[in-house]
Design brief:
The complex is a heterodimer of chains A (155) and B (759). Chain A is an alpha+beta fold and 155 residues long. Chain A has 5 helices and 5 strands; from the N terminus they run ββαβββαααα. Chain A has helices at residues 22-29, 86-93, 103-116, 122-128, 140-154, and strands at 2-7, 10-15, 48-51, 54-57, 70-72. In chain A, strands 2-1-5-3-4 form a 5-stranded mixed sheet, with helices on both faces. Chain B has 3 domains: 14-21 and 450-591, Aldehyde Oxidoreductase, domain 4 (2-Layer Sandwich), CATH 3.30.365; 32-123 and 200-275, Aldehyde Oxidoreductase, domain 3; 291-448 and 598-758, Aldehyde Oxidoreductase, domain 4, CATH 3.30.365.10. In chain B, the strands form 10 sheets. Chain B has a 7-stranded mixed sheet, sandwiched between helices. In chain B, β24 (464-467), α14 and β25 (497-499) form a beta-alpha-beta unit. Chain B is globular. Chain B starts with 13 loop residues before the first helix and ends with a helix. The chains are: A alpha+beta (155), B alpha+beta (759). The interface between A and B is large, with 53 and 54 residues.
Chain lengths: 155, 759
């Protein structure tokens, strides 16, 4: 199937079998390996990308269904000047990263949260990432990173 | 001069891990790479009646298959050589490899395996540790006597008992005879999956002479040695290159897929990748062993612990892996923390027809301290004493001896840890109200002593290169600890230090990220090398500055003359001058912790004889139990942790927060329930990991008590936070509902069952 879509603001054309997942297309055809394969059942969120601004589990999302959509992966989060996004920078500064395998998925889910709700409280942040498993951090420093972004934006 | 020690310097890998550019093992792709898959046993025990792979070979895209017929007829293992690469006659656990296929893509390899003709006649199995000890129980390995051990290793084993350690000191029976109370308990603990986010993988290449294996592994040198053992090669025929690791927690210390990747790469002459899918990973992971612990303590009228009798059964699964070492751990636990008379300890690791178990952060400590500290609550309750006060009055002090004879010079730290918690959250104010309870648990834990090494080089731009086979498993030990220690040795900031990724062709031996050893051991090795590097720096600078070596010091990336800071020469210039004169500045250092002395006859089978560089910990949990659902909510959780010296406080906080989260998972939810030898949970969803909404913020106090052996006083940090959690939670739940639940995880079902029994 020929699919046209926009990935990180770049138009791409793919020729994929109908069953191919968006994660496979991103990783193996477009060499965007930031989104990770960890469960392939839509449970852990390591493969999360934004589809028209909405977080989806790309490991169970067919590429065929993403025709004419806007996809953002973790590689697309940096500003055009190459600077880390405020959320990425907060992850660095607040030790929200340990092994880092879940980090791209968390960043995508939380970028979507902040786009929709610039002032989430702690419970809302925790609730937003129940679909993103992290085995290293116990999540607290992840939540603190988001809170730091919120504080900074309100200054 | 600024210092790096005690600074929360950002991780060296934090930026690449937030931009997606960090390459993990699963992100590596080599030109011409093919994909391997394993045909695994669908049953826990059976005889292979028929294996026909002719249709697999003929399937589209297939380049080759491999079975037991293609590999040396030998068994291998970490310490007991009991595991064949492929099952040939009998299968001994669900998931055991029987054959491998290599094809153009993973999908084609999977499709090809559908054509395998495999007939297995099921045979009687043992899937329960207590049943495996019954007279006449089927033997998992009828040929157990023929297994070799690693050179120099010997311990008692027999039939389904893969390892036994037994200590039977004098005076135990006499103490029980004169005891005012004998307190007795039985504990059970489940099997916990490490559940790292990156499934295990390996990529191997063979150039006709040597192998290169790409891994995301905690212990690359072990991969080299274990692959050599499995394929009958010399270790130096194998080069292991480490990439970013998506979590390990002990499960990536032994080999998994690496020998199969090497075997297939040699067979087809192209790079071969194997990667587990999640159910396969869960099914075959060397999970934390399930265990049964029986404990009996003789107590005097005034509460003195006169003697103890302990029996521990650990489930080794179908192979030994590293479990024979773990049978020593009870010797370091059941006579720790509190003053006690003689302790008899019999620990047996048992073969069953289940997936082999193995190392998981805080090996065995989670269930052993669950037993010890739940039992202490029981004793206090029996005596009618406050559980905290009773503990505090029984605490060991400096110079206490473990049952091994090891002297704990600093055992008194424990008392300070209790003080620290009390200041933060007074005991009397916790657990008040209906269905609420409070629990306390302590532990003492080691810093793994195994050897490590570095080579330091001063680069021509004044940065410092650190060449090491140490691995950054996510803990920050390399990305913060090692880097900051190296920077401190030269008055640099951490961002001027570049630490290599592991490569066994380049760096000398390192024992991997295990037992909280990396910062302590590699940091000390850095210190050893730095002494020599500094000597060369000063020697070069002295001649350039026409000053005496004694008058020089390092500051902010330069050598300065003491007292005249304007007379300085940058490290970059020194590196260049030295390179032109005597050759580049590059020196190596090594370290391994000397083992504390113990009484060698204290026990049989004591393969891991001591707990070097111990640290001390107290955890307090406050919980609320929902009597309708049986659910448990953690209201407050406090940790006082002794760390020697905190190199990076925020990184340590992350280790404590994350370790307690894993401990809460173990205490409350996580278990691979086994039904007739098969795991009931087979996906992440079914397994049930803690979520962001489940984990409270941990209230942390760090206690510093610098270790004279250094580096900068640092001891191990990352393992202990998981260890006392189940004990603290178990004690809090018992306090809340007035009933003891002596099995982990303490699921809602178990809570409701206990409440129903009460009614």
């Amino acid at each position: 199937m020929r699919i046209e879509l926009t990935v990180n603001e770049r138009k791409v054309m793919l020729d994929v079998p109908p069953s191919e997942t968006l994660l496979t297309s991103l990783r193996e055809r477009l060499h965007l390996t930031g989104a990770k394969e960890a469960c392939v059942e839509g449970e852990c969120g390591a493969c999360t990308v934004l589809l028209n601004g909405r977080p989806v589990d790309s490991c169970i999302y067919p590429t065929a269904a993403s025709s004419e959509t806007q996809i953002t992966t973790v590689e697309g989060l940096r500003g055009t000047d190459g600077k880390l996004s405020p959320l990425q920078q907060a992850f660095v500064d607040h030790f929200a990263v340990q092994c880092g395998f879940c980090t791209p998925g968390l960043l995508m889910t939380l970028s979507a949260l902040l786009a929709n709700n610039p002032d989430p409280n702690r419970a809302e942040i925790q609730q937003a990432i129940v679909g993103n498993l992290c085995r290293c951090t116990g999540y607290v420093q992840v939540v603190e990173a988001v809170e730091a972004v919120v504080r900074e934006a309100q200054r | 001069m600024t210092t790096e020690i005690g600074q929360s310097s950002v991780r060296s890998d934090a930026v690449t891990k937030t931009t997606g550019s960090a390459m993990f093992g699963t992100d590596i792709a080599l030109p011409g790479m093919l994909h391997g898959r394993l045909l695994r046993s669908p049953v826990p025990a059976g005889r292979i009646v028929k294996l026909d792979l002719s249709q697999v070979v003929a399937a589209p895209g297939v380049h080759g298959v491999s079975t037991a017929a293609d590999v040396p007829d030998r068994r291998s293992g970490l310490v007991l050589l009991d595991a064949p690469l492929f099952a040939s006659d009998f299968v001994r656990y669900e998931g055991e490899p029987i054959a491998a296929v290599v094809a153009e893509t993973r999908e084609l390899a999977n499709q090809a395996l559908e054509f395998a003709v495999l007939e297995i006649e099921e045979i009687p199995s043992v899937t329960d540790i207590e049943a495996a000890l019954a007279p006449g129980a089927p033997l998992v390995h009828p040929d157990w006597e023929s297994f070799d051990t690693s050179p120099g290793m010997a311990w008692p084993r027999s039939g389904n008992v893969v390892a036994e350690s037994f200590a039977d000191p004098e005076g135990v029976e006499e103490a029980f005879e004169k005891a005012a109370y004998v307190v007795e308990d039985r504990f059970e603990a489940g099997r916990q999956y490490q559940a790292y986010m990156e499934p295990r993988m390996a990529i191997a290449e063979f150039d006709g002479q040597r192998f290169t294996i790409h891994v995301a592994h905690q212990f690359p040198y072990n991969v080299r040695d274990r692959v050599a053992g499995a394929l009958d090669l010399s270790p130096s025929q194998i080069r292991v290159i480490g990439h970013h690791i998506g979590g390990g927690f002990g499960a990536k210390l032994d080999t998994g897929l690496e020998p199969y990747a090497a075997l297939l790469a040699r067979q087809v002459g192209r790079p071969v990748r194997l990667a587990n899918d999640r159910p396969e990973d869960l099914l075959t992971c060397q999970c934390r062993e399930n265990a049964v612990i029986k404990i009996r303590t003789a107590v005097s009228k005034d509460g003195a612990l006169l003697a103890r009798d302990v029996e521990v059964l650990m489930d080794s699964g179908a192979h030994a892996t590293d479990i024979p070492f773990l049978t020593s751990i009870p010797m370091h636990v059941f006579g720790s923390l509190y003053r006690i008379g003689p302790v008899r300890i019999k620990t047996r690791a048992i073969y069953t027809n289940t997936a082999p178990t193995g190392a998981f952060r805080g090996v065995s400590g989670t269930h052993l301290y669950f037993a010890l500290e739940r039992h202490m609550d029981h004793i206090a309750n029996e005596l009618g004493l406050d559980r905290l006060k009773y503990r505090r009055s029984s605490l060991q002090s400096d110079g206490a001896q473990l049952p091994t004879g090891q002297v704990l010079n600093d055992a008194g730290i424990l008392s300070k840890a209790f003080d620290a918690i009390e200041r933060k959250a007074p005991w009397a104010e916790l657990g008040i109200g209906p269905n609420r309870g409070v629990g306390v648990a302590a532990c003492m834990w080691l810093t793994n002593p195994m050897p490590g090494s570095v080579t330091l080089k001063l680069n021509s731009d004044g940065t410092l290169g650190v060449l090491t086979a140490a691995t950054e498993n996510g803990s920050g030990a390399v990305a913060t600890g090692v880097r900051q220690i190296a920077a401190e040795e030269f008055g640099l900031s951490a961002d001027k230090v570049i630490v290599t990724m592991p490569d066994t062709d380049a760096a000398a031996f390192d024992a991997g990220s295990q037992g909280s050893r990396t910062t302590h051991i590699v940091g000390r090795a850095i210190h050893e090398a730095a002494v020599q590097v500094r000597a060369r720096i000063f020697e070069t600078a002295a001649s350039l500055l026409e000053a005496a070596v004694e008058d020089l010091e390092l500051a902010d990336g330069a050598v300065v003359v003491v007292g005249t800071p304007t007379t300085r020469i940058p490290l970059a210039d020194i590196a260049a001058a030295a390179q032109a004169a005597g050759g580049p500045i590059s020196e190596s250092g090594s370290y391994t912790t000397p083992m504390p002395s113990v009484n060698p006859t204290c026990a049989s089978g004591l393969l891991f004889p001591a707990f070097p560089t111990p640290t001390y910990h107290v955890h307090v949990a406050e919980v609320e139990v929902d009597p309708v659902t049986g659910g448990i909510r953690v209201l407050r959780y406090l940790v006082a942790q002794e760390v020697g010296r905190a190199i990076n406080p925020q990184a340590i906080r992350g280790q404590i927060q994350g370790g307690v989260a894993q401990g809460l998972g173990y205490a409350l939810w996580e278990n691979l329930w086994i039904d007739e030898g098969r795991y009931v949970q087979r996906t992440f969803e079914a397994y049930g990991l803690p979520l962001a909404t489940d984990i409270p913020e941990i209230e942390i106090v760090l206690l510093e008590h610098p270790d004279p052996a250094g580096p900068y006083g640092a001891k191990g940090v990352a393992e202990p936070p998981i260890i006392p959690v189940a004990a603290a939670i178990g004690n809090a739940v018992a306090d809340a509902i007035g009933i003891s639940i002596n099995a982990v995880p303490i699921t809602p079902e178990r809570v409701l069952e206990a409440l129903v029994d009460l009614r």
